[in-house]
Amino acid sequence: xxxxxxxxxxxxxxxxxxxxxxxxxxxxxxxxxxxxxxxxxxxxxxxxxxxxxxxxxxxxxxxxxxxxxxxxxxxxxxxxxxxxxxxxxxxxxxxxxxxxxxxxxxxxxxxxxxxxxxxxxxxxxxxxxxxxxxxxxxxxxxxxxxxxxxxxxxxxxxxxxx
Length: 162
Hints:
mainly alpha
């Protein structure tokens, strides 16, 4: 994954990076998708209505349908008051990569299960091993005695945490 500045860099983008990180890691997946909607509406508005269409217009048009007011997304939009088409296109490319293969991609079933087990008091290494058994191995073959022992440990820890 590449930093935002790989796609576009100027003073406005530097301000975004300063506030949200070089990979916009301060935004979660949902916020990044909202920003993508906002940027897409901005580009469409510029194309259909001309250069007087602003990021604020895009926000109003977007929020009529899907966007909920989110402090980080509003702050992101505030930084983009003088947004250009080139900036919007560069940001969209960066955000698309982050939402497909980067830090905002959908987690795999193993990753989600690992996270859930950790939340229930299972140490990371054991949670990871248990998740692989539950999500990958169980669908393909019977568990080995060692794998069953791992699952027994996971079950014991989650029951103790409950």
